[in-house]
Design goal:
This protein has 161 residues and is α+β, with helices and mostly antiparallel strands. It has helices at 5-8, 17-20, 25-28, 70-76, 80-86, 89-97, 130-144; strands spanning 9-10, 32-38, 43-47, 53-57, 62-67, 106-110, 125-129. The chain has one domain. It has seven helices and seven strands; from the N terminus they run H-E-H-H-E-E-E-E-H-H-H-E-E-H.
Length: 161
C-alpha cells in the first residue's frame, strides 16, 4: 500500500503551538512555531519574523532552513525526493510494515535515542506521545549539545511540565 503525506505527518491541532517546542527554544529561538510535524517527530517551524521555514531534527538535535516561506515548503512537499529524505518515508513505511501504527497525537521514537548510542532501526523504535517526545528530546539535546562526541553520559535530568 502506498504511503501518503498523512502517513508521514502528525496532526497536532490539539496541542498548544506556542508551547509544543518550549524545550527546543534553546536551539530554535522564541519566534519559531511548528507548521508541520513528521511521524518521527521532526518539526518544520516557521519564523514569525521573516517567514522562513526550518526543519528541527529531534533525533539528532539540529535545525536547518529548508524554505523561504510556507508556500515554498508546500511546493517542496510535492517533490518526491524531498519527501523521501525529509519526512523519512522509507523508515515510516518499514515501521508501519512491522505493525507499528500511530494513533492521534503520537509519533515514532527510539527507545534508546541515537544521541545516546541507539540505532535508527525498526527494532529500536516505539510509539510515543508527541508532546512527551518533543519535551524529552529537547531536554536531552540541550544537556548534551556542548559535549564532545564520545563523552560518556552518566546522568540525564528531566523536568516536569
Amino acid at each position: 500500500m502506498p504511503i501518503t503525506l498523512e502517513d508521514l505527518t502528525v496532526d497536532f491541532a490539539h496541542a498548544d503551538r506556542a508551547a509544543l517546542l518550549a524545550d527546543w527554544e534553546w536551539l530554535i529561538g522564541p519566534h519559531r512555531l511548528p507548521i508541520l510535524i513528521t511521524a518521527l517527530g521532526h518539526a518544520f517551524v516557521q519564523d514569525t519574523g521573516d517567514g522562513t521555514v526550518h526543519q528541527l531534527d529531534t533525533v539528532f538535535g539540529d535545525v536547518e532552513q529548508v524554505a523561504a516561506s510556507e508556500d515554498e515548503l508546500r511546493a517542496l512537499l510535492g517533490d518526491r525526493e524531498f519527501v523521501i529524505e525529509r519526512l523519512t518515508a522509507q523508515l515510516v513505511a518499514d515501521l508501519r510494515s512491522a505493525g507499528l501504527e500511530l494513533g492521534p497525537g503520537q509519533v515514532y521514537a527510539f527507545r534508546t535515542p541515537p544521541a545516546l548510542g541507539g540505532e535508527v532501526t525498526v527494532e529500536n523504535a516505539e510509539v510515543a506521545d508527541l508532546e512527551v517526545h518533543l519535551s524529552l528530546m529537547g531536554q536531552l539535546h540541550r544537556q548534551i549539545a556542548d559535549l564532545p562526541e564520545g563523552t560518556p553520559i552518566s546522568e540525564i535530568r528531566l523536568e516536569g511540565p
